[in-house]
Amino acid sequence: MKRTDVFWDAPAEALDRERLRALQLHRLRSTLERVLCSPFYQARLGEAGISPGDIRSPEDIRKLPLTTKQDLRNQYPYGLLCTTKDKLVRLHVSSGTTGQATAVFYSRHDVDHWADLLARCMYMTGARPGDTFQNLTGYGLFTGGLGFHYGAERLGLLTIPSGAGNSRRQIQLMRDFSTTVMHIIPSYALRLMDIMTEMGLDPRKELSLRIAYLGAEPYSEEVRRRVEEFYGIDVYNSYGLSEMNGPGVAFECPWKTGMHIWEDAYWVEVLDPETLAPVPEGTLGELVLTTLNRDAMPILRYRTKDLTRLLPGECPCGRAHVRLDRIQGRSDDMFIIKGVNIFPVQVEQVLMNIAEVGNNYVIILRRENNVDEMIVKVEVTDRIFVEDMRHLQRVQKKIAHDLKGELLLTPRIELVEPNGLPRSEGKAVRLVDERKI
Ligand code: COA
Ligand code: AMP
Ligand code: ZN
Q1: H runs (alpha helix) in 125-246
Q2: Domains assigned to the chain
């Protein structure tokens, strides 16, 4: 007999593989019916000559076309919507101006289901009513804010929507309301360690923290260990992406041996990113996900571009949902800094719209004294008189301002004389990541 008090949603979490499969097949068929409400999938499935009746087992999903971020961009804003606007209650939009942005829509059902998934995750790690939960990620358009917020309220935690930054206030809130559980981006957890040390505060003695959820950007076991030791807490890895709702896709249980991916909500594939053939369990490949319980904007076979592997074997916690290894990297050039996703092309587009900018630039990512920084070195054109300091300062400010508008984070801009940046042989090197994650 499985103990039901360890599950938030026992019918979904304690399913055996056979019943899970039956549920998946049922949900996959309904999803296929549903996607046909969007002109985009109507055309895609029409071209592939597939109808919902062709899906007889979950593996038949391989007959379906893949969906990419570029598809979502091309269909921005409404192209993948499968319902009418009066059924929508929320949308989240990625950073980036038109041409780069993607939008995800949620109906009441979707917001409720997403909150349930996050409540499930947090309950799994031991969070309970009576706990105080502080959410230190960006609210606004980032899914980590409202996603965790609704999940925590659903679980019945006293929830502090403190958002990103404002570190001394964060620490004050932790003290005043005896925060026990927090959601925080790994780079910020490191930064806060330094701020607490500067303040002479020992979190093990002076705070009540027990649990932290770290995600939204890659980090190592070494960072987990440092954070656990400094704060005296348990750290759980949290994985998600906006296209699949946001956080709550996969989460660690107390055994911390990989993240359970909620297979009643997502069909999971790991494919070779080159050949797109499935890789054997345990082999690194690209994670591809299909929503199984989404109403407003179901997505088929989404190429996450995240590289990871499925871990073989059963988890001692009793959940049959397969475990995902730590994300090892990406198969595209997107990078994440301070929890913000950036494509180099976004930087390029902003730079090329500024008359004083020359042809060459390089983005450098640095972690120094636990502060993450994005530095953009930009060559100016030879039309600009490099002795004119005021003009240079104006250009520098303009670049920083325009990039902040596009990326939602403030880069440091360094201007370089024409031809001042080293030329590389072959393809230009646009990104140098010096961080030790
Ligand atoms: N998350 C939250 N806050 C962070 C952070 C991080 N990863 N890294 C640094 N900060 C803190 C800084 O310490 C600083 O705190 P202070 O107010 O005590 O000085 C504050 O945020 C502002 O940082 P700064 O570097 O000056 O500003 P910025 O404009 O470059 O960055 C952030 C702005 C940090 C607010 C922005 O990057 C952000 O919102 N990040 C969070 C994204 C997120 O929530 N992603 C989750 C997706 S699910
Ligand atoms: P967003 O769509 O802004 O929520 O960003 C999603 C992306 O963040 C994912 O595709 C991953 O690349 C990254 N990400 C999220 N969670 C983690 C995690 N726990 N570890 C590593 N990368 C993560
Ligand atoms: Zn487990």
Answers
A1: 143-155, 167-176, 186-198, 203-206, 221-231
A2: 1-331 (3.40.50.12780), 335-436 (3.30.300.30)
